[in-house]
Amino acid sequence: MLKKNSIAVSVIVLLLLIAASVFYSEHTNKNLGLESIVGHSLSVILNNYDEIASNKIENFSPDNIAGIKMKLVSIEAYSAIIDQAVEYEALKPIAANML
């Protein structure tokens, strides 16, 4: 009887350990996914700002201005993603003021 109880307790503990490890790995993967989305968004924003800043004033044409407008729209969209991820609206108002 004691042997059956100890086996049952061992099986329950083993199942709880497996469930805890699965829960922990899923939780960790969600955080890594969010971090990678935010990191990608930040790099896109930085690249777009750098491309806009590297344009020379003499090279402005309707096509260049349209390209800058598209980059600003992209910056606003990626800023919204970051603001939503960190649950604080900091970047989107700045990007909206640039449009």
Q: Helices and strands in order, then pairings?
A:
Layout: H1 2-54, H2 62-86, H3 91-98
Task: Give me a quick take on this structure.
By secondary structure, the protein is mainly α.
Task: Summarize the structure in words.
This protein has 99 residues and is mainly alpha-helical. It contains three helices and no strands. Helices cover 87% and strands 0% of the residues. Helix 1 runs antiparallel to helix 2 and helix 2 runs antiparallel to helix 3. The longest helix has 53 residues. The radius of gyration is 25 Å and the shape is rod-shaped. The mean pLDDT is 81.
> Which outline best applies?
rod-shaped
Please summarize the sheet with the most strands.
none
Runs with pLDDT <50, length 5+?
A: none
Element string (H = helix, E = strand): HHH
Supply database-style keywords:
99 residues, 3 helices
